[in-house]
């Protein structure tokens, strides 16, 4: 009898039963009443029970000591399996099924029995094994569980059936409920040092590699006892004391018990966590445990655990350094060498999982991601994979982590802070929406106008001259044109603002300096000039003061041009300081184009006459200079010029410009300069150039506008022609000069840009690090 | 590519698909001499990011060797096939920068002892992705 050897499962089972019977908390004796009850539940005939009791020596002793109880249980099993009750049978009978006791208190208890029951027989309901409150069994369990731990593996086979059984009794989620139920008795205890149930549960984890929903990866890969031992030793360190704060008495006592208890607790906690489908989710108990552990290292929950302390802590888990290193890499979200609370919990959870045999993921699972709040404290919000968390790169990215989302989010700020000078990158971005706006504007305007305006958008370049003529005639012979000009200017004004806003928005997105977002669009200003200019144009459209315009043309670059020009020149002048900010420069051009449209209208008139010659001259000059300026009436020249300009431009602008220019090329005169001017204006440095360009175009427009007056005076044709030729030549020279100047400025700007880019490259690594 | 600490033993070697490991080992070791030479030539230069990048060390035998040294004298050496003409200097620089970043991430890991071989999976992944990008 004394040589009773129990299998692991039996050991556990008997343990529980004993604890169940240990109603008096004596830890030594099973109360007779309970025992008898139990035996009755075994559904054995009374005489057999008596025999058992006699055999186990209880009758001799008068009470059921633990050993007696165990023997009795074994005999019950023997009896239940139909074997004769012999003392020898205790040890000789191998593979004895566990004794079955029928006493269903509730479904959960029956589940317990089912889980505990042996292979063959199933709905054996066992009620007794409700884990008693920790206190009662703690000490005992400590001593017992060690053996249980050792023999746990052997119980796998037996336990493997239990999960199969349980579903039969209850829905597959029974293990869940079972676990929950188990939690209840010890609900009050955070860290349930249920060493008893712990060992019992362990085999379940091993036994359910994936059979049911309850089977969790953590269970499946239950680490062999040595790990648990390691875990025990891990938990043995002072941090564990926090774990068992709930049971100070036991804590101060046997360390082995405590460690085992903690191990069991953690096992339980793990298992409980694994009850959810997400294997990485941290349950509340776990989290509480982790938080407590965190507190032991770092009292401030919002603070960090330095790397060295964390290393010590996790080294206790006896995981290989390589794995710990990998865990660290996964959990140190912000790569700062320290762990926040969330990072620590994630790391701890990973350690726990790993100790259970669960393989470490390549990426941090979502449920383990540090919370956003922590991200705010950390240097960088990071995510290599999951993007969801990186919404709070609150701080500048001093971290070196190559976190994409954080980079994406912080990039605009970073760029804004680090790049104070204008970057030309936004140029193409700005262009297109503004172009679209422009086109829309054109459409609007032209739509509001007569059929002609629409035609410019649709007409091919070759048709430009005709279109121009038509539009000009239409536009300017009627007062509508002026109003149209106004309206267009108005709409333009709104558009530039919109454009400006979109541009600024885009620029901010593209990371240009914040300065560029500041400047208010200058659209309002052009209006008066527009009105003036348009009215003036209207006024002078046919009466013209060629001389004035000539003078204006001549005096254009330096001095104040005559009155007609000031309206146009003033516009550019006005725009200039505003455009000093840069962004909206192109928008200023657009309003300016409005007055020019009347001019273009004039042009068209003139075109019929001598413009072609002028244009050709201009074309030649422009082509030679490959510069922006164009008063290209001929669509071909315009398009070619535009193309040339595109080539001359920064590469990234070219694609934006060419299509836009091509798209707008049909518009009579006004649109062609627009893209060009816009391109120019998009660069801060070129703004003044653009201004000059606009001025020049304005001048040209004025010049050309003045020219239409010539044909009217039939009598003065020759003189007029000569005068116009002279004027055109002068204009050409002026334009040529401007061209060269602009070219030079362009070169300077490009150089600046290169230097800035270089600086950026230099600075960028520091921002990442 | 490989990296060496101060004592010039490789912490990490990874080769692109050609898997001609030994040859690369040899190449890398020989290139170390060039790296050292450049470092000494730099003298007490300011530790500038640009100067960390040593550039093309040694073009030879249909491959090029690029070098990069960190502030802590950890050297990165990259050997690239000469046939891969698409690789521009900027790209090499950015690759070194990424390497440097990943290396600092590894350094932050308290479980990593400087001087150990680098076993970080994240680092491996990064290096692999970079190499795949190039080849």
From TrEMBL, chain B:
InterPro entries according to UniProt: Longin-like_dom_sf (IPR011012), Sedlin (IPR006722), TRAPPC2L (IPR044760)
Subcellular localization: Cytoplasm, Perinuclear region; Endoplasmic reticulum; Golgi apparatus
Cellular component per GO, a single term: Golgi apparatus
Record key words, sorted: Cytoplasm, Endoplasmic reticulum, ER-Golgi transport, Golgi apparatus, Transport
Protein's GO biological process: endoplasmic reticulum to Golgi vesicle-mediated transport
Pfam family, one: Sedlin_N
Cleaved signal peptide residues: none
Gene3D superfamilies: 3.30.450.70
Keyword Zinc: no
Entry similarity comment: Belongs to the TRAPP small subunits family. Sedlin subfamily.
Protein name: Trafficking protein particle complex subunit 2-like protein
Gene source species: Columba livia
Taxonomic classification: Eukaryota, Metazoa, Chordata, Craniata, Vertebrata
């Amino acid at each position: 009898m004394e040589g009773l050897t129990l299998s692991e499962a039996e050991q556990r089972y008997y343990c529980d039963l004993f604890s169940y019977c240990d109603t008096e908390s004596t830890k030594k004796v099973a109360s007779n009443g309970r025992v008898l009850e139990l035996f009755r539940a075994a559904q054995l005939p009374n005489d057999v029970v008596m025999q058992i009791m006699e055999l186990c020596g209880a009758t001799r002793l008068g009470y059921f000591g633990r050993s007696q109880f165990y023997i009795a249980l074994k005999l019950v099993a023997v009896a239940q399996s139909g074997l004769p009750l012999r003392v020898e049978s205790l040890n000789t009978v191998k593979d004895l099924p566990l004794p079955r006791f029928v006493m269903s208190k509730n479904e959960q208890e029956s589940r317990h029995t089912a889980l505990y029951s042996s292979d063959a027989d199933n709905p054996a309901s066992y009620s007794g094994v409700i884990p008693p409150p920790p206190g009662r069994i703690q000490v005992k369990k400590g001593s017992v569980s060690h053996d249980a731990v050792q023999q746990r593996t052997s119980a796998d086979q037996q336990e493997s059936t239990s999960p199969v059984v349980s579903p039969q009794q209850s829905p597959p989620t029974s293990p869940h409920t079972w676990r929950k139920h188990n939690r209840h008795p010890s609900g009050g205890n955070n860290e349930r040092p249920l060493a008893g149930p712990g060992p019992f549960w362990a085999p379940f984890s091993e036994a359910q590699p994936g059979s049911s929903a309850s089977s969790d990866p953590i269970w499946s890969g239950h680490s062999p006892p040595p790990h648990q031992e390691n875990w025990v030793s891990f938990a043995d360190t002072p941090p564990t004391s926090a774990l068992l704060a709930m049971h100070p008495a036991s804590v101060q006592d046997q360390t082995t018990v405590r460690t085992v208890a903690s191990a069991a607790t953690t096992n339980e906690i793990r298992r409980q966590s694994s009850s959810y489908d997400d294997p990485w989710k941290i349950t509340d108990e776990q989290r509480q445990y982790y938080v407590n552990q965190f507190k032991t290292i770092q009292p401030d929950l919002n603070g960090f655990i330095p790397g060295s302390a964390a290393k010590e802590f996790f080294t206790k888990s006896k995981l290989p350094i390589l794995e710990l290193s990998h865990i660290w890499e996964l959990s140190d979200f912000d790569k700062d060498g320290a762990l926040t609370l969330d990072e620590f919990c994630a790391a701890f959870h990973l350690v726990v999982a790993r100790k259970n045999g669960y393989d470490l993921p390549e990426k941090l699972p979502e449920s383990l991601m540090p919370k956003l709040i922590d991200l705010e404290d950390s240097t960088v919000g990071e995510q290599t994979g999951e993007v969801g968390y990186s919404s709070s790169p609150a701080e500048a990215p001093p971290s070196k982590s190559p976190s994409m989302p954080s980079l994406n989010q912080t990039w605009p700020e970073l760029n804004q802070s680090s790049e104070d000078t204008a970057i030309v990158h936004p140029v193409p971005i700005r262009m297109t929406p503004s172009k679209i706006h422009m086109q829309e504007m054109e459409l609007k305007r032209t739509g509001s106008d007569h059929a002609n305006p629409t035609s410019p958008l649709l007409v091919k370049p070759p048709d430009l001259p005709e279109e121009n003529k038509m539009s000009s005639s239409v536009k300017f012979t009627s007062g509508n044109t002026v109003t149209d000009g106004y309206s267009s200017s108005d709409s333009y004004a709104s558009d530039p603002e919109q454009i400006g806003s979109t541009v600024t928005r885009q620029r901010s997105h593209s990371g240009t300096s914040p300065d560029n977002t500041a400047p208010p669009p200058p659209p309002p200003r052009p209006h008066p000039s527009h009105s003036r200019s348009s009215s003036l144009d209207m006024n002078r459209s046919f009466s013209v003061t060629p001389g004035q315009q000539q003078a204006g043309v001549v005096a254009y670059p330096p001095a104040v041009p005559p009155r007609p020009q000031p309206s146009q020149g003033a516009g550019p002048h006005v725009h200039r300081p505003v455009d000093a900010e840069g962004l909206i420069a192109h928008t200023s051009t657009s309003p300016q184009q409005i007055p020019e449209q009347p001019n273009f209208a004039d042009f068209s008139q003139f075109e019929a006459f001598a413009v072609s010659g002028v244009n050709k001259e201009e074309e030649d000059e422009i082509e030679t200079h490959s510069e922006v300026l164009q008063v290209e009436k001929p669509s071909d020249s315009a398009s070619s010029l535009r193309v040339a300009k595109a080539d001359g431009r920064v590469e990234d602008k070219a694609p934006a410009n060419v299509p836009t220019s091509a798209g707008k090329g049909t518009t009579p005169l006004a649109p062609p300069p627009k893209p060009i001017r816009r391109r120019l204006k998009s660069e801060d440095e070129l703004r003044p150039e653009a201004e000059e360009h606009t001025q020049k175009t304005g001048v040209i427009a004025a010049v050309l506008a003045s020219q239409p007056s010539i044909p009217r005076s039939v009598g003065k044709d020759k003189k007029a022609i000569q005068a116009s030729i002279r004027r055109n030549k002068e204009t050409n020279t002026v334009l040529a000069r401007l061209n060269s100047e602009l070219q030079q400025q362009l070169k300077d700007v490009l150089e600046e840009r290169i230097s800035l880019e270089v600086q950026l490259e230099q600075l960028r690594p520091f921002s990442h690090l | 590519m490989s990296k060496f600490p101060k004592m010039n033993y490789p912490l990490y070697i990874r080769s692109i698909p050609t898997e001609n490991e030994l040859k690369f080992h040899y190449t890398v070791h020989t290139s170390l001499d060039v790296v050292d030479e450049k470092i000494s030539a730099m003298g007490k230069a300011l530790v500038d990011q640009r100067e960390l990048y040593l550039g093309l060390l040694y073009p030879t035998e249909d491959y090029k060797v690029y070098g990069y040294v960190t502030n802590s004298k950890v050297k990165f050496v990259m050997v690239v096939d000469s046939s891969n003409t698409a690789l521009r200097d900027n790209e090499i620089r950015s690759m070194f920068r990424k390497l440097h970043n990943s290396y600092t991430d590894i350094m932050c890991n308290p479980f990593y002892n400087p001087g150990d071989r680098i076993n970080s999976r994240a680092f491996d992944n990064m290096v692999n992705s970079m190499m795949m990008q190039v080849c």
